[in-house]
Amino acid sequence: MNLISKTILSITLGSSWLGATAQDAKVEGFVHRQSDPSGYEWPTDTAVLANLDRWQDQKFGVLFHFGLYSVPGIVESWSICSEDVDWISRRSDLPYDEYKKWYWELKDSLCPTQFDPGQWASLMDAAGMKYMVFTTKHHDGFCTFDSKLTDFTITNGPFASDRRSNMAREVFDAFRSKGFMTGCYFSKPDWHCEWFWNPAYATPDRHINYNKERHPDWWDNYRSFTAGQLGELLGGDYGRFDILWLDGGWISGEDIGLDSILNSARSTLHPGLIAVDRTIKGRNENYQTPERGIPATALPYPWESCITLSNDWGWVPDAPYKSPGRVLALLAETAAKGGNLLLGVGPTPEGTIEPEAEWRLREIGRWLDANGEAIYATRPVEHYRSGDTWFTGSKDGSTIYAIHPVADGSSAPATIEWDGNLPSGRMTLLADGRKVKYSVTADGHVTVKLPRGVEALPIALKFTPDR
Predict the structure, then answer these.
(1) Three-class SS of residue 277?
(2) How far, in Å, CA of 284 to CA of 268, rounded?
């Protein structure tokens, strides 16, 4: 079906109550802008294209942020970045250099003794998620895998003697055993590495703190270090990956020799590997990643909105979690516009998922168990929205699904109305298969009468389009 030939991306949501408003965006912090939506470069590798199509069928995934920042429950590793912006906060009782020292020493406190990767995988499976991305290294350089190129790892601290100390491997294995597509998050910047933030100079911002032209050997060392760590992750000890999710768009893939890294990986252990060199438009951004919001329109290429379950990517105490209805509304809108939703969940410093997050995830999964046909393996239809109702279609075009979110605190409506997407024949509630009555006016206005007792979560309807 014809989508939209040219689009303008807006990192705002179609309906303000469904997601992050402008004020939410300020509260929730840094938004890593999507690359220019024009000029997407389709992969030429047939295995990558096939894997992208499979990934688009999954629709719903989880992104785990876990690291040193989990110990105090702060905004990931950004607090050690010396930039004066409102979303980066740090302890006011310590000068910056002392704060960085305090932060680095959190490695001596991180000991997730209650970490159970099987429980994580089972919970996300129950939530209806189909793929996962796990942080092997955030911008602070701390590794949740057993890197031999640095001692700044979870395997070189109080958790070292635990059989689960190579946390990344444990997580990837647990999710693969549940049939998830697996994604490896890796930060291209590394603020702990002396070849990125060299101790000879101050660290004024997120970039390298020296002139590459004056110190080409330092930069060559950094390129080798980064390629070496990616080689460790892609070398086989961590299994086969479907996605390499590269963060830190102020460093391009070209800077770290990504072309050769990907060519080697795809020709050996990771055929069809999807590269996400996020915000860097070109051959290595196989899908785009608008953050904390949903594009204003459908996009005619692969994309994924990464949005947090709370206000932060990592765990923070007393987090204001989104409701199940709100997450499902985000998922419905994303699917209708042709994208995937990657939901950020932050485990506690003990390695657990908070009960407040768990019950929400289980409620989301309960809805998807009954209504997932309207989400999974769907594609956008030409008229993907009418008012507050979103529409998806089966890949063969034979079926259309209407998804009508219900605002938090509201009851299910007695009727749903829309224009376009005219039904033919029987229409049913996906949740229980009940037939519903509808009428269509001569000018194409549809009114659906809902039965009593419909749950106050998004309402999904199934029908055959009138040809």
Answers:
(1) strand
(2) 18
End-to-end CA distance of the chain: 14
Dihedral of CA atoms 404, 410, 414, 416 in degrees, nearest 10, equals: -20
pLDDT of residue 37: 62
DSSP 380-449: EEEEEEETTEEEEEETTSS-EEEEE---TTPPPPSEEEEESS-EEEEEEETTT--B-EEEE-TTSEEEEE
Q: Report whether 310 contacts 346 (CB < 8 A).
A: yes
Backbone angles phi, psi at 368, to 5 degrees: -70, -30
Residue 181: beta bridge partners?
A: 131
Q: How far is CA 38 from CA 240, 281, 405, 431, in A?
A: 31, 9, 30, 38
Kindly indicate the confidence band of residue 75, based on its pLDDT and cuts at 50, 70 and 90. Answer: confident
Q: How far apart are CA 428 and CA 8, in angstroms?
A: 35
Please check the confidence at residue 16 and state whether its pLDDT lies above 60: no
pTM score of the predicted model: 0.92
Residue 183 CA from chain centroid, whole number:
10
* Mean pLDDT confidence for 372-385: 97
User: What digits encode the pLDDT tens for the residues 219-230?
Assistant: 999 999 999 999
State which amino acid sits at residue 446: V
- For 54, the enclosing helix (H) or strand (E) is helix 46-58
Q: Does 255 or 329 have the greater pLDDT score? A: 329
